[in-house]
């Protein structure tokens, strides 16, 4: 029997730890169980670097995959990782420190996070902002906000970092690109 994280195992493990998962537009939105703050949980769709895994196209495809052969990544804190997540230099550091987010680290920002957050990609700019939001309001509060952040206000479907319009109803959404531009211009 394989130890591979399947969509079913993901949902079952979330239920067992009492994380209060809810499906939001086909996207699992998990909040940490009470008393679990700061501990790693395999079921949380949030990367250490500040990215919300729930807005990743690979993650969304994987949690909606009809069978396990189509699962590519179940998030940074899972045992089923995309190649780029498996090779991340931030992940082992945060794991060793038992953090849920780099924003909780007393050494943030560090050289590892700076290298990623300044790579010019819009999602990296958003990830940096998210780390500061985690530091300001706490991981639990930040994580609870993320499913609605990445949900179309018009139809309730989830969208990804790459989407500039809702994939379902084609309504304008507050895209990752727009958020990154707002961050760069000091608007938020």
Task: For this entry, give a set of tags.
188 residues, mainly alpha, two-stranded antiparallel ribbon
Descriptive notes:
The protein contains 8 helices and 2 strands; from the N terminus they run αββααααααα. The chain is mostly helical and 188 residues long. A two-stranded antiparallel ribbon has the order 1-2. Helix 6 (122-137) crosses helix 7 (139-149). The model is unreliable at 1-42 (pLDDT under 50).
Helix-strand layout with pairing:
Blueprint: H1 7-16, E1 22-24, E2 27-29, H2 57-63, H3 83-86, H4 90-96, H5 111-117, H6 122-137, H7 139-149, H8 176-184
Helix pairs in contact: 5-6, 6-7, 6-8
Percent of residues in β-strands: under 5%
Spatial gap, N to C terminus: 48 Å
Total domain modules: 1
Annotation, overall tally of beta strands: 2
Largest sheet features: 2 strands, antiparallel
What sequence of helices (H) and strands (E) makes up the elements?
Answer: HEEHHHHHHH
Described by the principal axes of the CA atoms, the overall outline is globular
Uncertain segments of ≥5 residues (pLDDT<50)?
A: 1-42
Q: How many distinct helices?
A: 8
Percent of residues in helical segments? 25-40%
The secondary structure category is mainly alpha
Rg, rounded, reads 16 Å
Strand order of the largest sheet: 1-2
Query: On the 0-100 scale, what is the average pLDDT?
Result: 83
Please provide a brief summary of the model.
With 188 residues, this protein is mostly helical. 38% of the residues lie in helices and 3% in strands.
């Amino acid at each position: 029997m394989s130890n591979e994280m399947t969509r079913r195992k993901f949902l079952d493990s979330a239920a067992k730890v009492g994380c209060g998962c809810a499906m939001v537009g086909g996207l699992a939105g998990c909040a940490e169980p009470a008393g679990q703050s700061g501990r790693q949980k395999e079921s949380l769709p949030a990367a250490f670097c500040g990215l919300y895994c729930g807005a990743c196209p690979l993650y969304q495809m994987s949690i909606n995959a009809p069978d396990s052969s189509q699962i590519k990544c179940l998030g940074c804190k899972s045992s089923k990782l995309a190649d780029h997540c498996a090779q991340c230099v931030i992940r082992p550091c945060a794991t060793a420190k038992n953090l849920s987010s780099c924003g909780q680290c007393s050494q943030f920002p560090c050289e590892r996070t700076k290298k990623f957050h300044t790579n010019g990609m819009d999602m990296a700019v958003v990830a940096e902002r998210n780390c500061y939001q985690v530091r300001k309001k706490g991981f639990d509060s930040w994580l609870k906000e993320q499913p609605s952040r990445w949900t179309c206000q018009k139809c309730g479907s989830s969208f990804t970092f790459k989407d500039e319009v809702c994939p379902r109803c084609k309504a304008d959404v507050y895209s990752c690109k727009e958020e990154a531009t707002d961050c760069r211009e000091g608007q938020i």
